[in-house]
Write a structure and sequence with these properties.
This protein is mainly α and 271 residues long. The chain contains 9 helices and no strands.
Length: 271
């Protein structure tokens, strides 16, 4: 009886690992898809400085989401999930080819997250935070969150697939872990996590950029504590919102982090 319960418990642990592995792979896929969109835009267009800054903010928001997920795996001692995620990250990076140099700092930060290294805290710019709040106040919440429509259904499909094909994934993942474990540790010892300012190299550098917090918006009691030229910032808010519309037909990403999502996705009250 005890042996049967132990086996069932191990089966649950294995299943949870496969689900978490597939979820982080999916998150990496989504992140690289948006990175590729940015690279394509930079290579084929000449974005205005403000729109370029908005693109950069969106990428940083995606990196913050990945960092949050990876830190949860570190806390739960789920190193195997991170190794498998890192291996998948390397596949996606290789697909970028030489274009990866354009977003090198973003790649370095995401790799450090998957390697379980201590990360530098990131912020997005205050102008984007202010513009996002203004957009929501003017009834743009549904449009603003449009990029997340269907995300929950996609996660449920990933969970179902991982549960259905658990044994198949388990076998392949064991091989990957055995093959990549040493190189994972070696890479972890080599790489250094880039800081806040480096994250804005794509936008031309962090000089003269005011980074901020969602605490500092017009409806917040903290708002008056931040020096602000109303006329200047009203124009900046309008510019940011206008240029949020990508009239050139490139896929756009909405990645403003309102709230960090829960780390465990359940289906039928089961992980």
């Amino acid at each position: 009886m005890f042996g049967k319960k132990k086996a069932q418990r191990q089966q649950q642990i294995d299943q949870q690992m496969e689900v978490k592995t597939q979820l982080i792979r999916s998150q990496i896929d989504s992140m690289f898809e948006q990175f590729e969109n940015v690279i394509l835009y930079l290579k084929t267009d000449k974005p205005s400085p403000q729109f370029l800054l908005t693109l950069n903010d969106s990428a940083v928001a995606l990196l913050k989401l990945l960092a949050s997920k990876c830190e949860a795996h570190v806390d739960e001692n789920e190193k195997d999930v991170l190794i498998l995620g890192w291996q998948h990250w390397n596949v996606k990076k290789k697909e970028l080819g030489g274009d990866g140099r354009i977003i090198q700092q973003w790649l370095d930060y995401s790799e450090c997250a998957l390697l379980g290294k201590e990360l530098n805290e990131l912020q997005i710019t205050q102008i984007t935070i202010d513009a996002a709040h203004k957009n929501m106040e003017q009834g743009g919440l549904n449009s603003f969150l449009n990029g997340f429509v269907g995300a929950n259904h996609k996660s449920q499909d990933i969970v179902k697939d991982a549960q259905t094909n658990r044994e198949q994934y388990k076998s392949k993942n064991r091989e990957v872990i055995a093959d990549k474990k040493q190189s994972y540790e070696e890479r972890k010892a080599m790489i250094q996590c880039p800081g806040q300012n480096k994250m804005y190299d794509v936008a031309g550098g962090a000089q003269n950029i005011q980074f901020g917090s969602s605490l500092y918006h017009p409806s917040s009691k903290y708002y008056h504590q931040r020096p602000r030229d109303d006329q200047e910032n009203k124009q900046q808010d309008k510019t940011a919102m206008d240029e949020d519309q990508n009239e050139n037909g490139y896929p756009w990403m909405n990645a403003y982090v309102i709230k960090t999502p829960s780390q465990t996705i359940t289906r039928g009250n089961k992980p």
